[in-house]
Specification:
The chain is an alpha/beta fold. It has helices at about 10-20, 45-60, 95-110, 125-135, 160-170, 170-180, 185-190, 205-215, 220-235, 235-250, 255-265; strands at about 25, 30-35, 70-75, 80, 115-120, 125, 135-140, 145, 185, 195-200.
Amino acid sequence: MPEEPNEFLTGAEKEAESRPFQFIRWDATTNVARLTLARPKHNVFNIQMFREMTRAIESLNIRDDVRLIVLDSAPECEGYFSAGVEAAGYKADQVFQVMDAFHGVLLAMVQISKPVLAVVDGVATGAGCELAAFCDMVIASDQAKFLQPEIKLGVFPPMGAVVYPRVIGPKRAMELLLTGEPISAQQGLAMGLVNRVVPRAALAETVESVVRRVADLSGPVLSLIKRVTFEATWKPFEEALKSSQDIYLNQLFDLEDSQEGLRAMVEKRKPVWKNK
């Protein structure tokens, strides 16, 4: 995988990147940023953890060189991608703040507009399952499980109720939300929640293979693809079509990389991206 260390951060940006994280690990020193959930034992989310994730993602605001964010979990988290939000987050005096912090992560992912690849090796429950579903791609080990158990507690996942119908279709979404039963990685693959399922021993190699292919492309063009696809998923058809046309005609062809790609095709050579 090509590495392109960032040498152009401002003083404020360097200071922000240097502030320690307690519940995540963050590495944005190359053209692939890596965000690792690291709150043993089970990566249970709290407000601070969500805010750390948001801060990390937002730090990529001017990083046109970054092609992709890889979101995974630390090995010490005992087979959990995430067990969801901690119990205190469901109490009346905290629920709004927790929801707001979680939504902050999702909005940061949209606004930064970098493709996000979730790597799920183990259990993704509640907000952990919602987070994985919201990512652009999911690669899972054959040991992964996904579930939204909130209905069994007399509540429902507000973000999941919006995301799942768009990601896996309304009927499959209703089954997932109404039963609260876990689904295997293979079931997730069949319903479109997961892109690939591989044996645990092959997970790292498979992820790196995908990462290498994406990291070899133009960062700004990848961001535009994410924007158009996101809007196509979430906006009404006519509005999304107009937005796609505008981005294609007025933003894509202003990029040096799009011109370079077309020249390279004519000249029968590999493009040399400038990420501009």
